[in-house]
Amino acid sequence: KAASSAAAEGRLVTFGIVPTKPETGYGYIKAGRKPIKKFGAFKILGVDKFVEKPDEARAREYLESGDYLWNSGIFVWKASRILEEIAAHLPGVNKQLDYIRMGGNVAHCYKNIRGISIDHGVLEKSANVAVIPADFKWSDIGSWNSFSEILDTDPYGNVIKGKVVDIGSSNSIIFGNNRLIATIGLKDFIIVDTPDATLVCPRDRAQDVKNIVDLIKRKGYAEHEFHVTVNRPWGTYTLLEAGPGYKIKKIQVNPGKRLSLQIHNRRSEHWVVITGTARVQRGDEVTDLTVNQSTYIPTGVKHRLENPLKTPLELIEVQSGNYLEEDDIIRLGDDFERK
Questions:
Q1: Rounded CA gap, 126 and 119, in Å?
Q2: Of 128, 123, 143, 116, whose CA–CA distance to 51 is shortest?
Q3: Buried-state track 207-216, b at ≥16 Cβ within 10 A, e below 16
Q4: Measured in Å, how far apart are the chain's first and last C-alpha atoms?
Q5: What angle do CA 34, 36, 41 make, to 5 degrees?
Q6: 243 Cβ contact partners less than 8 Å away, ≥ 6 residues apart
Q7: What is the 3-state secondary structure (H, E, C) of 43-88?
Q8: How far is CA 214 from CA 167, 210, 228, in A?
Q9: Nearest-5° angle of CA 153, CA 158, CA 161?
Q10: I want to staple 332 with a disulfide (CB 3.0 to 4.6 A). Which of 235, 254, 261, 270 is the partner?
């Protein structure tokens, strides 16, 4: 209510968490000492400056001064006010928002928006920011170390989740996925296995994960941009395997959804239904396929996949051809339903 009252007056309000330790992984807010206003027991303060993640010495200074709060990243404001501030401080972003207002494609606009946080792009430049000191339990899950603060540990201080077997490890964080992870004698380590990549690092280097992400991007590895499982408006597809001249996917189409009518110029496709019913358009022919039935989509033939039922549709797709990237597609309709 205190935040809402300030937001109603046109302020951009954030909650500042009262620090409990010299945390180097969080951003900080230096709050003004004189309240802008009071709301019951709450003080609504001005913001002198935002501070990036400090080293340990500066973090201790901030903690001891009592003038600094952790930047929670939780905001309260009127939609009209934040749009005015974006127009003033991020004209490039505002241009893309205007394009969306006129019916432009959201995904296209998103790709053209400058990658900048709302803190850097607006809040650090605005004269209308306020902060409310808050002492509720909070963590920004800013690194893998944070999980030891919010999840239960075993008697040896480990956080272990997923398909993991361990002998003699202590104070470690181990997250398994579909593959079995086996560990022996680790101390103060982090291991995280995902379908896209596996992370292994000492716990005191957890904040360096962002540097690894930058390195992956610079080296041009596809994992930076593309995930094994990709969400689409109609459902998901998961890459199971790929090699020279072939690619295998599992496709799930949500109830009542369909893909765009399309053509591939450089690949053919085989579909095998494993769950549900697939309504397949191939050329001008429309056929319903059920479990264990299949179809073949030759190169250059227009086709569409649809789930006509109220239960999920799953199928295996095998692509064959000399070029198998996602841009080998000509859409003939429903442009927003992208495959």
A1: 10
A2: 123
A3: eebeeeeeee
A4: 44
A5: 85
A6: none
A7: EEEEEEEEECCCCHHHHHHHHHHCCEEEEEEEEECCHHHHHHHHHH
A8: 33, 6, 19
A9: 80
A10: 261
What value does the mean pLDDT take over residues 144-170?
91
Tokens read off for 179: 């593959």
pLDDT tens for each residue of 68-116: 999 999 999 999 999 999 999 999 999 999 988 998 888 788 888 888 8
Q: Tell me the C-alpha distance between 206 and 190, whole Å.
A: 8
User: In whole numbers, what is the pLDDT of the chain averaged over residues?
Assistant: 90
pLDDT band at 339 (very low <50, low <70, confident <90, very high): very low
Range in 85-94, 207-216, 234-243 with the lowest mean pLDDT: 207-216
Model confidence, pTM? 0.63
- Residue 259 contacts residue 304 (beta carbons within 8 Å): yes
The CA-atom distances, in angstroms, between 308 and each of 33, 292, 317, 335 are: 62, 17, 19, 19
